[in-house]
Amino acid sequence: MDVHRFSAETPFDIGMQQGKAFKDLLQRGLVTFKTMELVWSMKPRWMSPSAFLWIAGAMGKKKLEPIYKQHASRQRERIQGIARGANIDEHYLWFFSSSEIVMGINDYEVPLACGCTVLVPDPASMDTGHVTVARNFDFATFVMPYLRVRKNELAGYLKTMDITAAPLPGTFNGYNEAGVFIATNEAFPIAEGIRKPGLSASVIIQEALETCNSTQEVIDMFKKKPRGSCNIITIADKHKDIASLEYTSTELHELKPGKEERYLVATNHYLAPELAKIDLPVTAVFGKKAPRALRGTCINKTSRTRRETVKARLNQLQPKAITRDWLFELLKDHSANNSVGGMETICHHDPENISAASMVIDLETLDMWACFGLPCEHVHEHVGFSG
Fold first, then answer.
1. pTM above 0.90, yes or no
2. 117-384 carries CATH number 3.60.60.10
């Protein structure tokens, strides 16, 4: 598994390096993206895909750039650098940055399936005694060609390692040299008035990875930054502080494992009572704007099923029984669908969405084992933080 290493004095130069490294990929991807059913379902019938993406990007830039400038200036500079390095219009990158927020808005026509499963066992349950994270990043299949492992070394900030999509300044899952891990799972509440202009989760994660030395510092950052999306954030550090943040733009609730619990599990539904009451109903189904293969199927049952599967497998174990190999097998699990991969299995299969990346990370040694694509079909490869 290749690691793309970007090292520079400024965020703009880091972005330039990323843009140059992924130039051909981004230019080809933009052409492909314009032909996708997802884009055609969002645009007005009379508008061309190119015009729609440019106008949507212009609207995203107008709304988000002032917020980035004030609250995430480094990531704003990275976007500018990526555009320059890849020789593509900056408006398209603002479209991708804003789409993370837009696609999380649920009106029973949500175009993307819920996804992502994260487990952080109590270190006392690990054979190593280390804080270790296991995660499947589930997303629409179109993201697969654009996923990369990225090592960032920005002068004056913490070194970070992540798995991200090529056009993004931020990341959905990563960790830093201080032994802090952060990942986001989408949430889909349906209440009105809970979304305000703000930063996407991936941008706040990048900001935190570059500056935070502990779980508490990450929590403090998420409380202070304007949040533009609805998410469930898993945070862990090598000092054994493990937490989940469940939030909207207007509310944030911190959850930690109870004294009797030996793990933290996050999927895509809220556990905090204050947010659970506005969460997507289990009975909700994909509507007519979703890809055809998903229309009429249940949206959020997968989230509850995946969480219960993880808990059931954990409850069968004794302390000190969790090994790295056991975590690999968990991420491949198909038990919720009679040993066949499906929409409700931890290793997520459906016509439009899959477990696009899978990872196990030891926060004590900073070692990661990861694969792109379905973990049931691929081997987790070792990626050293400093190697």
1. yes
2. yes
